[in-house]
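Worked Example 4.2. Consider the chain below.
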Amino acid sequence: MSGIYIHIPFCKQSCSYCDFHFSTSLKNKTEMIAAIIKEIASRKNQINSVVNTIYFGGGTPSILAIDDLKLLIDAVYKNYNVAEKIEFTIECNPDDLTQNKLIEFKNAGANRLSIGVQSFNNEELLFFNRAHSANQAETSIKLSQDVGFDNITIDLIYGSPLLTNKSWLKNLNKVKEFNIPHLSAYSLTVEPKTALGYQIKTGQLPTLNDDNTINQFQLLVKEIKKMGLTQYEVSNFAKEGYFSQHNSNYWKGEEYLGFGPSAHSYIKFPLERGQRGALKRCWNVANNIKYINALTEGSSCFEEEIIDEITAYNEYILTRLRTIWGIDIDYIKTNFNEKINRHFKQELTLYLNSSYLHQLNTKVVLTDEGILMTDKITSDLFYVK
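Applying the procedure from the previous section yields the following structure tokens:
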């Protein structure tokens, strides 16, 4: 099993909180599509497993014309062993979604939409510098459902200075109102190279209130569970059968290839006879022109590293602890050395005697109380030389 991620590095405008790689200029769009297609073809021998998920992220994939999207999809199917039944997700902004575009997405094979709502409140959307209105957010969900998309996820943000518990409840109630089967809810994070980071640094905005953020997270968990959604990862909630396969593959350590500027890949490969299998991470250059030039010239567009045993252990802790699948004690015993196992057992014992972790057979998962301590527990379980 493996996944394919395609990064579309274009947006209409810059959101105040976003530090992902993107450009608000479409000047090099044609060259970018051609470059991504070249990368897709050039790396076809890097994974041999069946591709079961395709994910268009960004940036804003929904900004593309359908013909551009089809070129990229065709390149994937031409060069990779794609399963007959896959999860095919496109990230969308509400203001891009018309009935015709949604029909085109469906005809192109997409069966899951990730709609970047962020809020159903116009004042907050303006604060985030989003391009859509609250009405457009609601309309985009209705249109998507009318066209036949039943697998829809939306993003919501909590913890902003404008968000009260009352308005947060209104946002969450929209999930119930529209019978949305999946929600990704993220705490507003202040990144240094963003408009929000600058405004807080210069005193134009107050620092974020941690107590409000915690209260809104607890409200989120309480209300969403009432709606029948499972918290299968700290920030992700879904009805049974609607867990994100693509993101679950990330958290379970499955292979994936990332195409486009700034995209990452995670590849498994065997070392010499008698050695432990190795993991390799690749990351593409986060610059549109450099990326296009590299592919045009036939040179490498990415850097790579072999993931050593300590890093592999720490990443296993980082990704698995956040999920309902938790940490498998037997997996750690089998795959990591004695020093790592000794450290893990020592730290784990301390937390199992608290109310933050729960053990069921060989699986260790966070308790509801422990979820609020995820970063601290993860840090303590990490192995540092």
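The longest strand covers residues 82-92. The two ends are 33 Å apart (CA to CA). Compare this with Example 4.1 before moving on.
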